[in-house]
Description:
Blueprint lengths: L5 E5 L6 H14 L4 E5 L5 H12 L4 H26 L2 E5 L2 H11 L4 H11 L7 E6 L2 H9 L12 H17 L4 E5 L4 H14 L1
Parallel strand pairs: 1-3, 1-4, 2-3, 4-5
Helix pairs in contact: 1-8, 2-3, 3-5, 4-7
Thymidine-5'-diphosphate (TYD) binds next to helix 4.
Amino acid sequence: MTVGKFITFEGIDGAGKSTHIAFVADLLHARGKTVITTREPGGTALGEKLRELLLHEKMHLETEALLMFAARREHLAQVIEPALARGDWVISDRFTDATFAYQGGGRKLPLSKLAALEQWVHPHLQPDATLLFDVPLKVARARLQASRSPDKFEQEKADFFAATRAGYLRRAAEFPKRFHVIDSAQPIDNVHKALEKIVASL
Ligand code: TYD
């Protein structure tokens, strides 16, 4: 019996993670895996409606964190858990580490509140591997500037992203077995080599 694995992609806006998701999905396809690619916030019909609100409406910080987890609850029930139970591989563009980084690090919501929500929503599930694409702030900002109409998060100031990046690195230090921190400022060939190694190890 094949066993599915859950891989999450993380990084601050402009870190370049989205470019690498297709590459990793292709590597897994080449190894004969069935791969589901999904994203947060979103991934379900309801989740995509919540994404629209989260990315464009002003709201209380705690509302933002609660809606992230509400969308996640739906995503787990409808997409992630059934796929893993079938033995499929799931690649998610962001998951709970993003809430710790953005709402915890960037917006400074107490981490204990987020830990309580994490315990509530997925007490027994963690990604098998989390690929954190890390770049210096300047590189991420330059990439963002090239992007079309920025959403609520992309409009944040440099210190928000510095705190978000620090939030990610704190999570990576807390869970060193699960996290793979990838220097996303290096040439793309080197990033691809790093990704090939990680996929082989999984
Ligand atoms: P992102 O994944 O960067 O999508 P795109 O590449 O289309 O811009 O956008 C999602 C945004 O949501 C991103 O700025 C991070 C934010 N976010 C949080 O603040 N908390 C979370 O828990 C998640 C999943 C995302």
